[in-house]
Write a structure and sequence with these properties.
The chain is α/β, with parallel strands linked by helices. 54% of the residues lie in helices and 13% in strands. The protein has a 4-stranded parallel β-sheet with strand order 5-4-1-6. Strands 2-3 form a two-stranded antiparallel sheet. The relative contact order is 0.18.
Length: 182
Amino acid sequence: MEKKTKLALFDMDQTLLDSDFAWAEAFILIAKEIGFENADDFGRLYYEANFEFLLKAIMERDPSWDVKRIFDFLTIHIEDVYKHDVQLKKNAVELVDTLKKEGYITAILTANNPHLSAIAKERFLKVLGVDAWHCCQEWGVSKGDSSIYDFLSDMYGIDRNNFVLFDDAEYAVETAYRSGIR
């Protein structure tokens, strides 16, 4: 068997999984919890702004809501949705299969909460057919830290110039690009 020398990395949420709606709904719930008059706007802002913008708005409105409290709240409200309602994006399986046929090792690289990642992995690993499922938090790094690509390069024995990244987060794409990933 020929050694694979290319690695395709996929983000989980909004890239292979259709999970936007779950996050938007959870942010609306937080906004209602802390008394934003236009809490429903948080659903729209989830799509139009970015995660960091919403975190900042929540923490400015109520400083008792730190990042950990926000993520704990999000996880509680999203867990059941991940178990039952989140689905694969159209053609996700075909994309993974095509890349595997082209000689790529395929792996999920998610910055999501490890618990939610585990739920998605249990539901979708076999269906998607990816070779590996990685959660950044388990390693203590983010996709905004280029050292994650050194770690993956060492793990797979593949030069990062032979990586391809599919991700919807601008910061992750920028970091990967600066790291030589296309």
